[in-house]
Amino acid sequence: MLVPVRRSIIGLVSAIGISAVLALPTAAQDAQTVAAAEQVRDAALTDTVAMDYVTQLTTRFGPRPAGSPSETAAAQWAAGYMRDLGFQNVHIQPFPLIGWERGQESASILGDNPQPLVVAALGHSPGTPEAGIEAEVVRFASLEALMAVPDGSLNGKIAYVDAGQLVAMQSGAGYGPLTRIRGAGPSVAAAKGASAFIMRSAGSDEHRMPHTGTTRYVDGVVALPGFALSAPDADQLSRLVSYGDPVRLRLFSSAHTYQTTSHNVIGDMPGDERPEEIIVLGSHMDSWDLGTGAIDDGAGGAITIAAAKAIAEQGRTARTVRVILYGSEEVAQPTETGNGGGAYLRSLSAEDIANHVFTGESDFGADRVYALQLPIGAQTGPFADAANQVLYPIGVLRTGAPETQGGADIGPIVQAGVPVFGLKQDGLRYFDLHHTADDTLDKIDPEQLRQNVAAWAALVWLVADSDVDFRAMRPTANPAP
Asked: Nearest Cα to 95, choosing from 348, 342, 349?
């Protein structure tokens, strides 16, 4: 086991095999720290913890809707799993939540040629009356088109937004425009007088598997039932509407909300020199109810737990590495609380927040990491060079773009000033599976999962075994003239 000598050498080997000595500030990595990060990386490429964790999680507990008994049981089990791996200070942090249960749902086209449609109720949508809702469909090609019609003009009708298929991109950038429709669509449809809202699923696949996901509360309520149509059914419905004859649907949902509790699971690999300085590795425990939450986000917990374990096996670092499995990332709430991320932030003092030195979130599946985004101001310089040297051999390239947000779970502490990094995963197939019944363990490629663990472990080692200060790297705002 190599225990690095910290800050004793002001030099490192530059990236891509070219030897060069760089003059480094005392806060940066020394050559032995970089060498240790490479050893952590290489050991993590043979990791077995990540696949074991996600296999047990998804097999033992299946889907884990926010605040459900299965999420609660999974949190208790994960805390024990982390203790068995050597995590310390492991505890479960509860917080109140409005939960949502899907119940039963159905949709069908009525009239002379009746036929079923495959739908999924949107998260936190209310149920329909027991007899369902029967009404004519009005199709819109965008949320903006729905917003443009007069209030009250859709009285007694079903608003349908078909903005086209999600475009698969490595970065996942195609998701934002469609998830906006899912979040805002029901409230906009209600303002126009509609009795229900349907949309083409926010997915890139052509399977007859609808993508669920949360809608948004407006003034403390979700105003009407909302549904997502699978892509083939959206095509079918849009063709029927295009023929010009009125199309009537029957929609049914028994969904309902209830008061419950969700939980964050927190565990540390303590530092030995400055244990009060914390690096947070985040993911979320909850999942949607259609699949088993393997890629969203059992894989994220697997990656971060395994990375912290790989770091600990190399030797204690100067700073503490903290893994948080956040509760209830997936669902909206009547009052914006930040869910698990907000609960964690509210547990911290101002001094605690100042001692959080670095954070990142794994919540984009299990396919390979291809890019690194560092905190603002850290895109170039000795630390970026060191990170590039360690990550380039496993196919991860640093980019010039800073990471500024992270994900929903770590968002609250990032907004509070904690420097954030991003290890960007290949998202080309992510939205084929996301929030569907196809989000299952068999979709995880073990080799790509191990590459994730290696990237996380190596990068975090570089920070955990140093005194690099990303806050100090932030550019100073120019004073007003």
From this structure: 342
